[in-house]
Amino acid sequence: MSALYQLLYLRVPTHATVHENVTAAKILGMARAAPLVNAILRRTIRERDSLVQILDESEVGRYAYPPWWINEVKADWPGEWEPLLLAGNTRAPMTLRVNLTRMTRNAYQRELTAAGFSALDGSIAPTAIRLDRPCAVDHLPGFAAGWVSVQDEAAQLATPFLDPQPGMRVLDACSAPGGKTAHLLEYTEGNIQLDAVDNDPERLRRVHATIQRIGCGTARLIPADATCPEEFFTGDPYDRILLDAPCSGSGIVRRHPDIKITRTRTSVERAQTLQARLLEAIWPLLGVSGRLLYVTCSIFECENDRVIGSFIARHPDAVCEGFPDNRLAETKFGVASRTGRDECDGFYFARLQKSG
């Protein structure tokens, strides 16, 4: 597949593509297949123009998504489906989150300029800076000292949307890899009682390393399944809960294009089931007047409004809160960022308050 892509769409010399891929077949122990690889690639070279025309005449070829994905986005975003699909094929920027306990965004911009970087302030998050080109994190001024973290601009909205206040008990229900966990501590200068739960101990070690690097307080890191609160809940209700739910990742496909291949309609349905289970499991842990923020990095309505709508129908004490003064697209129960329109990944946010 990679060889065909090179021949059809890249500027790699055709003879180099053929030679390297035939050689690769031999090295990988498939010497008997080498003549077939050679024949397919040479025929592709001869028929390239007609093949490209055939591909461009189909939606799958034109947009480079599986049919079910295209149909899903068409149904969910009838007025914006084409820009959304095309934006998912673009190169994502490297976006930073400034640790405002260390310095202002303007001050860090000056640090970047002095180090030879060019960057722009984010447009929807007050902590965001977009670099004009990506770089290794150890080249960023003050990264090791916790001045900044790498995080998409839409993801940076989760903490201010949750708006934890000093002294509150906060649960980060699916915390790894730790970007939002760290932001919760930065936002409150570490003055919260934070429980960070994840079912992968190895990924929790990454959360710990991130918390250590930013130096803004501590969290209780708990290797547990958030669908089983008996594994971690002490009995004291939480004032705030962040549920960054596992999802299809359809909103971050420009960063992880393999998602187009690894996700299926069935896997999305499994994600919906897990999202519903997580909401059911952690809702009882929230105190009266407390707030739960449901987040996905998906643009599929079935993982977003549909999950929240079903949950609200089952729980009369769950009240949707609005999102005043934001630039995101309003949905029935929340708001959503759109790749290509908001200069960030595709995220969904719904905010629920527990009534008395």
UniProtKB/TrEMBL annotation:
<dbReference type="GO" id="GO:0005829">
    <property type="term" value="C:cytosol"/>
</dbReference>
<dbReference type="InterPro" id="IPR006027">
    <property type="entry name" value="NusB_RsmB_TIM44"/>
</dbReference>
<dbReference type="Pfam" id="PF22458">
    <property type="entry name" value="RsmF-B_ferredox"/>
</dbReference>
<dbReference type="Pfam" id="PF01029">
    <property type="entry name" value="NusB"/>
</dbReference>
<dbReference type="GO" id="GO:0003723">
    <property type="term" value="F:RNA binding"/>
</dbReference>
<feature type="domain" description="SAM-dependent MTase RsmB/NOP-type">
    <location>
        <begin position="84"/>
        <end position="355"/>
    </location>
</feature>
<dbReference type="InterPro" id="IPR054728">
    <property type="entry name" value="RsmB-like_ferredoxin"/>
</dbReference>
<dbReference type="GO" id="GO:0009383">
    <property type="term" value="F:rRNA (cytosine-C5-)-methyltransferase activity"/>
</dbReference>
<keyword id="KW-0694">RNA-binding</keyword>
<dbReference type="GO" id="GO:0070475">
    <property type="term" value="P:rRNA base methylation"/>
</dbReference>
<dbReference type="GO" id="GO:0006355">
    <property type="term" value="P:regulation of DNA-templated transcription"/>
</dbReference>
<protein>
    <recommendedName>
        <fullName>16S rRNA (cytosine(967)-C(5))-methyltransferase</fullName>
        <ecNumber>2.1.1.176</ecNumber>
    </recommendedName>
</protein>
<dbReference type="InterPro" id="IPR023267">
    <property type="entry name" value="RCMT"/>
</dbReference>
<dbReference type="InterPro" id="IPR001678">
    <property type="entry name" value="MeTrfase_RsmB-F_NOP2_dom"/>
</dbReference>
<keyword id="KW-0949">S-adenosyl-L-methionine</keyword>
<dbReference type="InterPro" id="IPR049560">
    <property type="entry name" value="MeTrfase_RsmB-F_NOP2_cat"/>
</dbReference>
<dbReference type="Pfam" id="PF01189">
    <property type="entry name" value="Methyltr_RsmB-F"/>
</dbReference>
<keyword id="KW-0489">Methyltransferase</keyword>
<keyword id="KW-0963">Cytoplasm</keyword>
<dbReference type="InterPro" id="IPR029063">
    <property type="entry name" value="SAM-dependent_MTases_sf"/>
</dbReference>
<keyword id="KW-0698">rRNA processing</keyword>
<comment type="function">
    <text>Specifically methylates the cytosine at position 967 (m5C967) of 16S rRNA.</text>
</comment>
<dbReference type="InterPro" id="IPR035926">
    <property type="entry name" value="NusB-like_sf"/>
</dbReference>
<dbReference type="InterPro" id="IPR004573">
    <property type="entry name" value="rRNA_ssu_MeTfrase_B"/>
</dbReference>
<keyword id="KW-0808">Transferase</keyword>
